[in-house]
Amino acid sequence: MVVRVQETDFDPGAEIAAATAGREDVGAVASFVGLVRGEGGGRRIRAMTLEHYPGMTEQELERIEAEARGRWPLQAVTIVHRYGRMVPGDRIVLVVTASAHRQAAFDACAFLMDWLKTKAPFWKLEETDDGAAEWVAAKAADDAAADRWAVTR
Amino acid sequence: MVVRVQETDFDPGAEIAAATAGREDVGAVASFVGLVRGEGGGRRIRAMTLEHYPGMTEQELERIEAEARGRWPLQAVTIVHRYGRMVPGDRIVLVVTASAHRQAAFDACAFLMDWLKTKAPFWKLEETDDGAAEWVAAKAADDAAADRWAVTR
Amino acid sequence: MRLRYFAWLRQRVGVAAEEIDPPPDVRDVAGLIAHLRARSPRHAEAFGELAVVKVAVNQTHVGFDHPVAPGDEVAFFPPVTGG
Amino acid sequence: MRLRYFAWLRQRVGVAAEEIDPPPDVRDVAGLIAHLRARSPRHAEAFGELAVVKVAVNQTHVGFDHPVAPGDEVAFFPPVTGG
User: Fold this and answer.
1) CATH architecture observed for domain B2-146
2) A23 close to B (CB below 8 A)
């Protein structure tokens, strides 16, 4: 089980390989990579900066990782989330889930991503091409996605 | 859009990177890797051999890939499926889907995997530790998973 | 007409493919199967359990009532168990 | 009591963290916010829109009725917008 909050980039292929290395009981590895898009709400995005709450972030990520392992039979879970300034095309977040069967791997991966997008203590500052920098407001669609899972905390 | 049926292994990290290379409109890359398990139906599996229908397989994979692109707004889809003899821990199949948003990427990836497990013309021969080799029978659970999507062909 | 067999159907028939020239009264898949059953004991055994035999004509899944004609590629195989 | 601010709350208050020693009648988050609003115009502005202010006490999300005590770490931030 790997939970990391870091400023540097990560390697999805290496993380996927590490989740199953030396094992013969994993039949399914689902993964998700979130990237910075060059466009948001109709505006060109030049860069974005993710601020987080050091200490609380790691604690919350470990808590939700444990929750996912309680809900699905998972042999491995990896969560890597970056903070700091990133430009379009950069990787932001990685979730890898490994299970014997694909449904558990897919569901756990989607669950963790919905949670990360709506509950993890990260705040996004977007810089547009005109030089303006604006804090992104929370999206109702994301909250609805997380509410599917009935996570109450 | 990449569809390949091959005997050799593949590199998930390289395929994920290729799906988004040089793009700034992809916010979400979902991927799935299926692997050979060392156990199946309570028996130790020493190896498995996937037989396929050359020509028809590629055609069917391209058709379902087009179907996924028609259902979800996808910037990239990669399907790599191996055939031949593989041992526990080996990678069998890879699906990568890239979209602006995570729901489309996740749903398309799960859709393609459900289809590959139930409709793609592959047949699995399992070798158990006692030297026996047996053709695997189709699973009702897999058919139910594919039927979720109401794919009629 | 080119016939192809996969998985245990291939093993039971004993060949992966064969060329045949069925009589003109073989007009659909069901007729072709009846013809093949009479061809050899191996064919008869391979086509003994039709509930688990699938067919594709010219690389498209079809039902047993689908027509077959000279020049077609007709493939027989068990339900798929891929990935 | 250690206060921490994130995102636009940090920018409006003007500091990322501060140590304060609130009067004894400050017993919960709501009371703390009332105390902070009176502290400076920047604090008053930061806490102007309470519908979009979230709070964590000792790194756990809580409601405005949650007690606060000397020694607590109290963090204020907007709704999260991660990943």
Assistant:
1) Alpha-Beta Complex (3.90)
2) yes
8 A C-beta contact, residue B57 and residue B87: no
Ramachandran bin of C11, using left for φ above 0, alpha for ψ from -120 to 50, beta for the remaining angles? alpha
Instruction: List chain B residues with CB under 8 Å of C80.
Output: 118-123, 138
A12: which 2 tokens? Answer: 């999805």
Across the interface, whether the CB atoms of B81 and C7 are under 8 A apart is answered no
Q: Is C82 in Cβ contact with B117 (below 8 Å)?
A: yes
Q: What pTM does this model have?
A: 0.91
Q: Which residues lie closer than 8 Å to B123 by C-beta, 6 or more apart? A: B50, B51, B52, B135, B136, C6, C7, C77, C78, C80, C81, C82
Report pLDDT for A152. 44
Give CA–CA dist C17/B55, Å, rounded.
14
Tell me phi and psi for residue C9, to 5 degrees.
Answer: -65, -40
Q: What tokens were used for D15?
A: 């500091």
Cβ <8 Å between C80 and B113: no
Q: Could you say which residues from 56 to 95 on chain B have a Cβ atom under 8 Å away from some Cβ of chain C?
A: 56, 59, 81, 92-93
Domains of chain B by residue range: 2-146
Minimal CA separation from C53 to chain B, in Å: 12
Interface subset of A 46-85, CB within 8 angstroms of B: none
Q: How confident is the model at residue B139 (pLDDT cuts 50, 70, 90)?
A: confident
> Residue B152: pLDDT above 90?
no
The token duo for C78 is 């068990």
If DSSP codes are grouped into helix, strand and coil, which group holds residue D41? helix
pLDDT at A60: 94
Q: Which of A111, A112, A118, A109 is nearest to A142 (CA)?
A: A118
CB contact under 8 A, C83 and B122: yes
The per-residue b/e assignment along C9-39, b for 16 or more CB within 10 angstroms, e otherwise, is bbbebeeeeeeeebeeebebbbbbbebbbee
Domain architecture of chain D: domains with CATH: 2-77 (3.10.20.30)
Q: What is the pLDDT of residues D17-75, one digit of tens each?
A: 999 999 999 999 999 999 999 999 999 999 999 999 999 999 999 999 999 999 999 99
Higher pLDDT, A91 or B139: A91
Collapsing DSSP states into helix, strand and coil, what is residue B80? strand
